[in-house]
Design goal:
Layout (H helix, E strand, L loop, with lengths): L3 E10 L3 E7 L5 E2 L2 E3 L6 H13 L9 E9 L2 E10 L12 E3 L5 E3 L1 E8 L3 H4 L2 H10 L2 H11 L29
Parallel strand pairs: 1-6
Antiparallel strand pairs: 1-4, 2-3, 2-9, 5-6, 7-8
């Protein structure tokens, strides 16, 4: 069986916290991530997933590639990172839905929160905790982004943004509901 690759983005704020999304029907919190479409580069997938799962408006040029990590037996994790100006996590909106076992449409993510690096094991699945705490240094990534790049604006968007492909680098206009 061929391994799949999931592309994800570590959304960090200036205070040293990581944005997590609660996966519906799961006890775990996660980072925005998902499978790559055949036509996408890794950074494009990470941007699309951040938009679909959190409503974040990013461009591939704003991301710093972190690397490819062994994640699970059947899946690797290709990570990117971005430092953003702090915003209220509850303003995130998931626009990606699935059909649950009862036939109901549910958002992939149903909660959002900022978490300090040392608290990740309380929220995330062991496989993600291993990558985030043993395979890389979130503190070093945070420090590098803070010193070299600085924070970008990534305020979550509206639920009603249709036909927008943020992975292509176009930033949608603000839509008021």
């Amino acid at each position: 069986m061929e391994k799949s690759t999931s592309c994800g983005v570590l959304v960090l704020d200036a205070t040293g916290q990581l944005l997590l999304c609660h996966a519906s029907d799961s006890r775990y919190w996660d980072i925005p991530k998902g499978g790559r479409d055949a036509r996408e580069q890794g950074a494009q997938t990470a941007v699309r997933e951040a938009f679909e799962e959190c409503g974040l408006r990013l461009s591939p040029a704003q991301l710093r590639e972190i690397g490819l990590f062994r994640y699970r037996k059947e899946k690797d994790l290709w990570l990117f990172a971005v430092l953003v100006r702090h915003f209220e996590a509850k303003s995130c909106v998931c626009s990606s839905f699935y059909t649950d076992r009862h036939g109901r449409q549910r958002p992939e993510m149903d909660g959002f929160r900022w978490v300090a690096f040392e608290q990740l094991s309380r929220f995330c699945a062991p496989s993600l905790v291993t990558v985030l705490t043993q395979a890389l240094s979130l503190a070093a990534i945070h420090g590098q982004l803070l010193y070299e790049v600085g924070p970008v604006d990534a305020v979550p968007g509206s639920r009603n943004l249709s036909g927008i492909d943020p992975a292509q680098g176009r930033v949608p206009p603000t839509v008021r509901e």
